[in-house]
Amino acid sequence: MNQGPFDKAKWKYGTAWNAPDDSKIWNPVKLKMRVGQKVTGGTLFASSDASTYCALANAGYDFIWTEMQHDAHNWKEVANMWRACPHAKAVPGARVAHTDEREEQHALDAGALVLVVPTVDTVEEATAARDWAYFPPLGKRSNGGGQARTSGDLGNFSGFRQGQPDYERAINIVHDAALKAGVRLCGPLAWRDRPDFTCFQAGTEMVAITRGVAAELGSLKDTQGRPEVGPYAPR
Predict the structure, then answer these.
(1) Residue 93 needs a FRET pair 20 to 30 A away by CA distance; which of 63, 102, 105, 123 works?
(2) Residue 158: how many other CB atoms lie within 10 Å
(3) How far apart are CA 139 and CA 108, in angstroms?
């Protein structure tokens, strides 16, 4: 689809990440808003205690607005609170400090389904808020790999999957430019057998632990008992 020298402004985004035609919205807040219903948000201002957050999230609100503009929370604390009750009635949300790539992506990568961006006064600020909230081609959000699982950046920004001609063409462009400049050619560990690549980035500690346990347990992996009642019974 894409020909000639690489030009970001002329790149034709692929269809690799297009949602299926029959996709359903699973954000309950958005579902209510789309049909004109009222939504309510509880505010978590000072607490960083997971049990307090979970109690608030199960109290009856539609979403919880975790305050990241005026309080001293850090994103690790917030992610741990949200992780403690992933099936709470209220979905996680946050008011970020400002229209900022770091702030918005920290919130969304941690799992936020509601994002509140304050003090937006211009079209440019509103556009930036959108850009860091949406993946390409609408926005510029990068792959985070946090609690909200996403795809690799090359596929994310190109719209193509590994093995497709346009994806491979992008790799070749980087390959040729790196060799011409005399710099090391680096990529994900999956590319360790590609010609001329000499440094690689492996997965996260979570991926390493999961793969290590799978290798250790073999056929005993995921053979837990299945009680019919109690918290460990199938949902």
Answers:
(1) 123
(2) 24
(3) 13
pTM for the model stands at 0.81
Identify which of 80, 132, 136 has the alpha carbon closest to the alpha carbon of residue 108.
Answer: 132
Single-letter residue type at 48:
S
d(CA 185, CA 200): 9
Distance CA 91, CA 85 (A): 10
Encoded tokens for 66: 């975790």
Cis-peptide, bond into residue 137, ω within 30° of zero: yes
Mean pLDDT of 63-89: 94
Helix (H) or strand (E) holding 200: strand 199-201
Contact between 5 and 172 under an 8 Å Cβ cutoff? The reply is no
Q: What is the helix, strand, coil percentage profile of the chain, to 5? A: 40, 10, 50
The pair phi, psi for residue 64, each rounded to 5°, is -115, 125
* Mean pLDDT for the chain overall: 92
